[in-house]
Amino acid sequence: MPSPHLLTLHHLPAEEIRAILRDAIAFRAAHAAGTLPARLAGRTVGTLFFENSTRTRTSFSIAALRLGAEVIDLPVAGSSHAKGETLTDTARTVEALGVDALVVRAAQSGAVEVIARRVGCAVLNAGDGRHEHPTQGLLDALTLADAMGRTDTLDLSGLHVAIVGDVVSSRVARSNVFGLTSLGASVTLVGPPSLAPASLATLAPHVRVQHDFDAVLPHADAVMMLRVQFERHGDSTRMASPAFASLREFRAACGLSTERARRMKSDAVVMHPGPVNRGLELDGEVADSKRSLILRQVANGVPVRMASLVRCLNALPAHN
Ligand code: CP
């Protein structure tokens, strides 16, 4: 039975992932042709972001608006959450105002699932702590399929993706591990043991962990760099972390510098979910190079979130 929630890509069958991506491709084409249907007319979508966002929040809003929904962006900083209201009470309050779907980002892993259990509307996880960011995983899979000429099949078999850097903190890495391997790709998680512990190899079949970036780099079809998540290392200065001795050491171990990028396969691509710490995990020259899919990732966020919203809203009991 389809779920009205999108909380994780873990255990989401490959055929369901492909169905969402096929819908996204159809929405993308319809928008380009000016024939986008008002599939969400009469629906109200609320966004509830307890952590900062540029790409995810904006693209969910654009997706919902283009499909004819009303959108309520709740400014959490000015909400009663700041007076001590729990995440769940805030979510239930917004639901009571009449939303059909809630798009939620939270700092705590698992918090969005807790909210989904307590509300009757659809809930889409826009990133929860270190756990998952499922629509990012979906849009990354679509972007990779596009770049590798696999849009028709959405079959990523034979492709090798390196996910590099602050893996342990990354919900993007987890959702990509589940999404990419489900579609047939193999994934190598790369970083020093403090950021890419060997235990992460158990996340899914066809995943391995490698601490030597230079050994992996020449064999990868796609190199997905991750943002160093200083906020999850307990550092607000963005200058230090207990996970590495210095920024210089981090960059030497797993930064994709211009010099390192020269050692990639000639047709390999560079990805990054954004926002980028330029000059740390990724040099600006590489981020802006022809190899870079970063802005294509951002653009694919809109049709993927259209498809995700429609899937969840269509699965609400009241809709059937
Ligand atoms: N990739 C991503 O989640 O970006 P935002 O934090 O800007 O939404």
Describe this structure in words.
- This protein is of the alpha/beta class.
- It has two domains: 146 residues, Aspartate/ornithine carbamoyltransferase (Rossmann fold), CATH 3.40.50; 160 residues, Rossmann fold.
- Helices cover 37% and strands 15% of the residues.
- It has eleven helices and ten strands.
- Strand 6, helix 6 and strand 7 form a beta-alpha-beta unit.
- Helix 1 packs across helix 11, helix 3 packs across helix 4 and helix 5 packs across helix 6.
- The chain binds phosphoric acid mono(formamide)ester (CP).
- The site of phosphoric acid mono(formamide)ester has 10 residues, from helix 2.
Query: What portion of residues belong to β-strands?
Result: 5-15%
Q: What is the first-to-last residue Cα distance?
A: 12 Å
Domains counted in the coordinates: how many? 2
Q: Low-confidence runs (pLDDT<50, min 5 residues)?
A: none
Instruction: Please describe the biggest sheet, giving its number of strands, its sense, and whether it closes into a barrel.
Output: 5 strands, parallel
Order of helices and strands: EHEHEHEHEHEHEEHEHHEHH
Q: Would you tell me the structural class of the helices and strands?
A: alpha/beta
How are the strands of the biggest sheet laid out side by side? 1-5-4-2-3
The number of distinct helices, counting runs of at least 4 residues, comes to: 11
What is the H level of CATH, i.e. the homologous superfamily of the largest domain? Aspartate/ornithine carbamoyltransferase
